[in-house]
Amino acid sequence: MFHHLKGTPESRLFEEKIYAQVLEELREGVRRDGLWAKAISDSGAQEEMAKSLYIRYRVQSIIDEIEISSKIQKIEAEKAAKILKAEAAREANIRKMKKERNNMQAQAEWFSESSKPHGPMTVVDWIIVFVLLTFIFSIFGAPHFYSP
User: Fold this and answer.
1) Which DSSP string do the residues of 31-51 spell out, in sequence order?
2) Cα 66–Cα 67–Cα 71 angle in degrees, nearest 5
3) Distance from C-alpha of 140 to C-alpha of 143, rounded to nearest angstrom
4) Which DSSP symbol is given to 120?
5) pLDDT for 19-33, tens place per residue?
6) How far apart are CA 10 and CA 2, in angstroms?
7) pLDDT tens string 63-92
8) How many Cβ atoms are within 10 Å of 38's Cβ, its own excluded?
């Protein structure tokens, strides 16, 4: 995260603030035992050298914590973006399915309306039936319902 800032005024100010934070930790008696042990080991048990190394190690530790936190936030943001994208796709699918359902309902209503009888036969309906029957009888002859 901060590698691109190395050697810039911003990185120097940032580093200064971290050194001040470490100094404040030491004044309050806060010390990381693992880093302190490493500093003592690397200094050959020289107290002043160990203090100096501890400060350097603690500064690097804080920078590492910030970078790790930044990476975690980036991963969480990517996960959130994927979740939002999946949710948007799911909602779009739901809208599509509702639209298809509405179309199917409209078609079903149309079919049920068109297959319903529309009331009693009118005079025009009877005239059409009469004309059709007359035409059929003229071609095939009258039906014989009984034989003499």
Assistant:
1) --HHHHHHHHHHHTS-HHHHH
2) 115
3) 8
4) S
5) 999 999 999 999 999
6) 10
7) 999 999 999 999 999 999 999 999 999 999
8) 15
Give 5's DSSP letter: G
For 147, the enclosing helix (H) or strand (E) is: none
Residue 117, phi then psi, degrees to nearest 5 = -70, 145
User: Averaged over 52-57, what is the pLDDT?
Assistant: 96
Tell me the C-alpha distance between 49 and 40, whole Å.
8
The model carries a pTM of: 0.56
CA distance 18 to 25: 11
Q: Where are the domains of the chain?
A: 3-140
Give the Å distances, CA to CA, from 26 to 23, 55, 84, 139: 5, 9, 44, 118
Residue 117 pLDDT > 70: no
Around 48, how many Cα atoms within 13 Å sit in the side-chain half-sphere? 0
Under 8 Å between Cβ of 54 and 35 = yes
**Residue type at 106?**
A
Q: How far apart are the first and last CA of the chain?
A: 111
CB atoms inside a 10 Å sphere around CB 84? 10
- pLDDT bucket at 118, cuts 50 / 70 / 90: low
